[in-house]
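Lecture 7 notes: from sequence to structure.
We start with the chain below.
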Amino acid sequence: MSEAAAHPVVPAAAVDDPELLTSLDPLLREWLPRQRWFAGKGRPVTGFTLDAVTQLRPGAALLHLLIRAHQPPADEGPGDCYQLLIGTADALAPHLAPTVIGHITQGPLAGRTAYEALQDPRQAAVLLERLRTPGSLGALRFHRGPHGHIPQGLTSRPLHAEQSNSSVVYGDELIAKVFRRVLPGTNPDLELPLALAREGCTRVPAPVAWYETGDAADPDGTTTLGLLQPYLKSAADGWELALKHLTNQEEFTSLARELGRATAEVHTALARALPTATYTRAHVEQLAEAMTNRLATTAQQVPALLPHAPALATAFTALTGLAAEGRTWRAQRVHGDLHLGQCLYDPVDGWQLIDFEGEPSRPLAERRLPHPPHRDIAGMLRSFDYAARSHRPWNPAWSDACRAAYCTGYADVSGWDPRTDPVLLRAYETDKAIYESLYEARHRPDWLPVPMAALARLAQEE
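Predicted structure tokens for the same chain:
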């Protein structure tokens, strides 16, 4: 990369011109709501404000934008902030046609075509080069970690799997994750792997580099924008691996037990690396109240849930009953959204856990709160059930065997079997299935029977 590309001069005519946002506004109103990672689907975009714009290449060929989308009702609050990497060009190569955002007709970039830059290998290479070089550029700060290195000359390719962010693979060696909807604070997908790396935990890929914005002097005032990690090219996706075993009628219990061991190793390391807490009666009552409210709200939106709601609510009242008797639980930082799709299996290195961002729909501060390990365990138990029910014919014995093996593996490492604490485990599993029912009703109605079957079972455990 040339010196000009590495340290571009920011032309005021392109970046500082107040007409820049005006020129992009009509294009983004059409393009942004169509993106998989846009959080405000179903509501019109009424306007944008620009938090920051940084030129990553000269001539406005690559712009980094932090932009807020305003939507009803009543355009309350500051609006969701999105991270965009927009390339502009007089003409695009034919293979970039699917990346087009629109043709700019006014402002400092009039006559150019705007497009999604991460889909362009040449533009994605600029991001990798910036991650290689620590320092500041405009509103952005780039950091290198003590783990791993960034070779030169790596070719890039975007991942097209459905996700709430965007990922680019570099030479089958590294993978960059670009957070799309960004929130103030350190993203746990960076925070937790860094803490685990300091503890020497090898079950999670250590961040190689990352970038952020905000107040450099205040860790709580920074906003994580993206990170670079090793790409585990020989590892199999846990979800796909489970479905393969189901299709081939192969047992999965040995792998499930190993996954339980890996989960316990990560939990143990997180408890050493970061502060823990105790869930007292007040904490448990607050947790149960939130779960109860989520049940009531979801039942109004998913009518199939209504007949089970009274019995499901006993999962939460039973929990508060134990707390009233003086029962407490240890809480710590956890994965927050653990399922088979967040796990990779390598025949040599075993299981690896990835994507510690937590549930993207929840506020960042909530995702960084400590929880009992039961939350992650319940998520994985639900995932085994999903895998079994996604296969025809349904194989409940497969799910039951995997769930049991996973808990056994967890106990092998932690010395504690999750099945010996059924009340809290049932509460977390019920809450997770309620969340799943709303998601499926909104996005994948054909899948709604999967969480509904689990909720019928959990209701019977009253």
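Points to note: The chain has two domains: 3-230, 236-460. The longest helix spans residues 422-443.
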